[in-house]
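debug: dumping io for the single-chain case to check the tokenizer round-trip. Nothing else runs in this session.
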Amino acid sequence: MRTILRCARVVTLFAMVVAGMVAATPADARQPEPRPADVSAPTVGRDVDLTAANPLTFRNPIREGAADPQMVYDSGQYHLTYTAGNKIIIVSAASVANLATAPARTVWTDPTASRCCKMWAPEIHKINGKWYIYYTAGTATAELDTQRSHVIEATSLTGAWTYKGKLATQDDFAIDGTVATMPDGKLYYFWSQIHQGVPQSTYVSLMSNPWTLTGTKTRISTPDQGWEKHEGQVNEGPYVLVRNGKAWVFYSGSQCKSQYYAVGRLNWNGGNPVSASSWSKTGPVFAKSEDNHVFGPGHNSLFTSPDGTETWNLYHAVTSRDGSPVGSCGGDRSARIQKVTFDASGVPQLGRPANSWTHLSLPGGDPGAAPLANGRYQINPKDIPGATLDVLDCNKADNVPVTVYKNFPSACQYWNITYLNDGSGTYKIINAHSGRALDVYGCSPDNGAKIQQFGYWGADCQKWFIDKVSGGYRLQARGGGKALSVSGCSKSTERVALQTWWYYQAGCQKWNLVKA
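debug: decoded output
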């Protein structure tokens, strides 16, 4: 009975915090929550054994605002590119965990009126020792019918780029070009095109060099299946995987604005690549996941891990916060990755889009991000100027709520952040005044779990991943994987409760860490 009364007091206290009505409460009204030493930490939200040796992890998305992403690994760094308006950019980092905030370099702009603008879906490829970027561009007008495929060349990824030409398709709307050396040793170009009234389809042509198409230009897939026709009939974003003498073309079907935008696969049967009969269609092979809050996953590409042993899928998707699933063709799409597996026949399997709360193992050979420096910090909500993380009434007892409150500052508004260095990549966050840890109430893995302070006992709900994201940091509990969030996305400085929630890239889930 006494335990039940304790829990009732804590729940009531949290409810009062949410309402902004908490007054000073005697310390003896909040007794410690019983936590036997043999209680197992929650396992929800894991994709790896976090007790194994050095299981460094990352969480999706790897970069926000990154549509049509493509990436290569070269000379110790990942090089990521994506649609960025009237320019082509490259973002480089030694770990995927650093891509979120790595600076973007502009490598190409073009004053030529016919190709100045709307530069879409750039792709980086190395061919015969030189680098090429294939991209789509058109005029400054609102119409999209001037979009055509182009290519630029450089001797290094950090060198100067030279325009090589427009890929001569049939001078129609032609986008999303990619190249691949097929098992016959020849270079081929794959793209998406609208031609002679046929809906947007996938085409292929032999190349005589990296900027010139030669011979027959063949349509190898058209949107003839139901899953390819949501909000419009579309095949786009082809990308080729060649492995062990086999080849597959992944492509996206339906309009990007649809939540049903998804990935299909063309299977090469060993015939002439420019013959439509050499290809068969399977799909969708990668589609939305409502449970994981991933909608419109598509325009994927593939990359190899730093150690050369793994194939990874890179794609964009959107997250629906309010329960109304949508797709998008805009800048709210984010870049995400996950490892590709292969079935017994060697066919690649993309699996199911990963959620934002699962801790995924880093690609093989990826060193992970350098840890945040140990020290005393204020933890300030990005969206609430003048506020900070605060222990209610500066109380030193267990079970006391941690909230957002106006910045005095006082001793209970400082936190000692220490990298645990136990192979998990997590931190403990200890209040500088009370000596107690930032803690998820009841070690709950659920959305809406409250945040409190509690004596540190090494539980997963007291260990936090701290990841750089656009606009600050995201803090996610190792147990359950949910992100530290301001309740209701309130912007008040007058005592707002905190809770855990799946990360959906909101400002109320981002924090500024200010070192004392």
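debug: round-trip ok. The chain has two domains: 2-53+370-515, 57-361.
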